[in-house]
Every structure is written in structure tokens, then in C-alpha cells.
Amino acid sequence: xxxEVDAMGKQCPIPVVMTKKVIDRATVGDEIEILVxxxxxxxxxxRLANKTGCTFISExxxxxxxxxxxxxxTEQSGEPVSEExxxxxxxxxxxxxxxxxxNVMGNGDDDLGxxxxxxxxxxxxxxxxxxxxxxxxxxxxxxxxxGSESLEDLKQMEADGVEILTCGTCLKHYGLMDKLMVGxxxxxxxxxxxxxxxxxxxxx
Length: 204
Known about the structure:
By secondary structure, this protein is α/β, with parallel strands linked by helices. Helices cover about 35% and strands about 25% of the residues. It has helices at about 15-25, 40-50, 110-125, 150-160, 170-175, 190-195; strands at about 1-5, 30-35, 55-60, 65-70, 95-100, 135, 165, 185, 200. The chain has a five-stranded parallel sheet with strand order 8-7-6-5-9. Strands 1-2-4-3 form a four-stranded mixed sheet, with helices on one face. Helix 5 (about 170-175) links the parallel strand 7 (about 165) and strand 8 (about 185). Helix 1 (about 15-25) packs parallel to helix 2 and helix 3 (about 110-125) packs parallel to helix 4 (about 150-160). The protein is elongated. The model has no long low-confidence stretch (mean pLDDT about 90).
């Protein structure tokens, strides 16, 4: 017999508790498929499988969606699980910040540099894992304002949840304060905070 457990969005240790209830009423040979949305739950279900003598297979279906398959191998005692046995800390999410300080990429020919920075921003928008924040300052502030050829890509990333921040002092310097078309105006304190708090900083 096949059982399905939908534990998407459930906080630890609920996925383990839900699955243990199914295991307790299952018979030898029954298959159990569990859906969860984080690796911590997958690891806890692996511990549960070892404790209850079930086989264990896991597969990442897509971002924040995992499928675990267990097969019951032995008769179960029905003993409740001790929640203390299962680690409920969610792993630290690594934070990536992209820093763009010019409206051109690299040194040399500025016309080429404009083509390169446009391509770089497009490439960021196509990545499976996008930066958490993109910071624009100095000449980079021009890329978030009216007339920028990267606005469509930046707006798409913002819609996908990427934080886009542009230096207010820089916008004032270039006379672009009323021309901002995507993201929010920020200050140097926030820029420094985002950069120092990042696990990885990308600079084109």
C-alpha cells in the first residue's frame, strides 16, 4: 500500500511526527512518500527511517521542494518519537550581494563596457540562484534610472524578490533623484551593512 504525506510548509518537527503516525499504522512493504520544503526536514526524516527500520531515498524536485520515499521493513512498536532527537535548526541561508559601482564593466573602451554591464545584469537575472541584494552606487546609479537598457532585467529580478538599492547621494550628484525607475533609494550605512553582512560579494 502507498501512503502520501504532504508536509510542505510545516515547521520542524511536524514532518517527522506526521510521518511517524503513518509508519505506525502501516504494514511491512508499505511505501510512504513525503513532501517537505527544506533540507533539515529531509535529514530528520532520514534519522526517523533509521530509527524505525525503513528504507530511505530523497530527491530534490525543485527549489524548496523535496520528496522522500520510505518503505516499511519491520513491524512497528508504535512508540512515540522523542522530538529532542531531531535537529530543528534551519541551516543559515548564505547571503549574496552584487555591487555595481559603474555603468560600464571593466577598463578600456566605454562603449564595450556598457555592452558588458548590460550582459552581466541580464546574466544575473537568468541565474537559478539570484543575488539577495544588488547595490548601485557612483556611476552604477545610472543603471537603475530612466533610460537604462537594464531596467527590464532589474524589474524582473525585483519581482523575483531581489532587493535593489541605489545610493541616494549618487543619484543627487548625477541629478537623477527623480529618475529612479526600479528599487529603492538607500544610504551609505545600509550599503555598508548589506556588504558586511553578506557571505559573498560579487563585483563585475
